[in-house]
Design goal:
Blueprint (H helix, E strand, L loop, with lengths): L2 E5 L3 H12 L4 E5 L2 H10 L4 E5 L7 H10 L7 E5 L4 H10 L3 E4 L4 H12 L10
Parallel strand pairs: 1-2, 1-3, 3-4, 4-5
């Protein structure tokens, strides 16, 4: 079972993304900021990261830069933000994001992109 880490300081956003991803049978864990995400990743790396941009302690850009600089297997990352400017997207890709989505993310959008990045088949709302 593929493991996904949701990193966001908003509990409602983490819960929303968790429900979507668990409906497709992914194993989901949560972190409230980049520091907690790094700690969890060092214990057991994840297959995909869903990362908010603006968080206290360590933001999404810093988290992805740190993850990409480590000599560990590299997993794809989706950066999710309310920041809609091209500058924010470019900054996310430079930090190591594979995809940049705007909040609020629709369930089908999140699932289809997660499946694509994980090499899974997405055939609608829920994976078989």
């Amino acid at each position: 079972m593929k493991r996904i880490l949701i990193v966001d300081d908003a509990a409602t956003v983490r819960l929303y993304h968790r429900k979507i991803l668990e409906s497709a049978c992914f194993a989901v864990e949560e972190a409230v900021n980049g520091i907690e995400a790094l700690e969890k990743t060092l214990r057991a790396p994840f297959d995909l990261y869903i990362v908010d941009v603006n968080m206290s302690k360590l933001d999404g850009y810093g988290l992805l830069k740190d993850l990409r600089s480590r000599g560990m297997p590299q997993a794809p990352a989706i950066m999710v933000s309310a920041e809609a400017s091209a500058k924010d997207r470019i900054r996310a890709f430079i930090a190591g994001a594979n995809l940049y989505l705007l909040k609020p993310v629709k369930p089908a959008q999140l699932l289809s992109h997660a499946c694509l990045l994980l090499g899974e088949i997405y055939i609608g709302k829920v994976r078989p």
